[in-house]
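Researcher: I'd like a structural prediction for the single chain below. Treat it as a standalone chain; there are no partners to consider.
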Amino acid sequence: MFIDELQPIFQEFLQHPLAFTGGFISGSLKLELSEDPLKTWLKKQGLTDFTHADSTSVIGSGPQSISID
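Model: Treating it as a single chain, here is the predicted structure.
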C-alpha cells in the first residue's frame, strides 16, 4: 500500500533522473529560481524562458476572501 503511493515518484525518477534529482535538491535547499547562483546557471544553460511565481510577493499579502457558490 505504501509502495503504491510512492510509485509516481519512482516513475519520474526513472524517466528523468538528473532533472528529478536537481529539482529535489533545489527544493530541499529552498533555492529560488530567480536568485543567483541558480539563475546564472539557468541562463548559461539557455533556460531563461521559465515562469516562476515570486514567493516573496505572496508572503505578507494577508488573507484572501473567496466566494463559493
